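>> received
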Amino acid sequence: MMGSSPVAAVIRKDLTAIRRSKAVIIPMIAVPFLLLVVLPIGIGLAARSQKHADVSGFLSRLPDNVVAPIVRLPAGEQLVVLVSGYLLAPLFLIVPLMVAAVLAADAFAGEKERRTIETLLHLPIPDRQLFYAKVLGAFLPAVAVSWLGFLLFAVVTNTVAWPVTHRIFVPTRLWAVVIVWVAPAVAALGMGVMVRVSARAKTAQEANQLGGAVILPLLFLAVGQSTGLLLVTLPIAVGIGAAVWAIAVLLIVRGANRFTRDRLLSG
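>> returned
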């Protein structure tokens, strides 16, 4: 049974370690809360207070495919929908990537730092399964935080904007694709990089420093492309997610094939 397998045991152990580590749990919860709850409240209230503002000048500088869904709205709704529905979109690819990077950096390097690596290495589990267990132990909380954060964001955004829009405008079908399909793919991509870095580093801090050179470009790319994802067609959004998943799976499988306990100890 999977529930009693060595892989499941490693995942449960990692989830327990995450819950007990303030250095991991605080940034994992606090940063998404600030980005997905506090910031949208502030920006949404500011946009709502300017509901009669003329945004036509700003919209005229944007591409037509960005402008089209907004200009069809009543003038009073345009600013709040533009800000809350589109301009805050980059947050939803930042959060899974950031949380995944924090947790994956701790996957092996944290074990070395806590001096529990010997116990881990003596578990009756093949090297490849151990690697996959460590990936899943970081991936599952990253996705859970992202989805819970989006749920809170949707509630906050629609509540703040309700006096202006009088309707629920988040999520759309494209939002759903980004959150359910693309965001986990981005988390997996970050995981594929950071778990391999963590296996070579001696501490989680060192893993974060080494992985930052790779994660930061991915972060900038996510920020730059996420708003556009909400403006493409559903098949294109699904295809983009599939491409990210393919790269992520390739990195993770290659990492698992190269992973050995001897390499971990020599790192």
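>> The mean pLDDT is 83.
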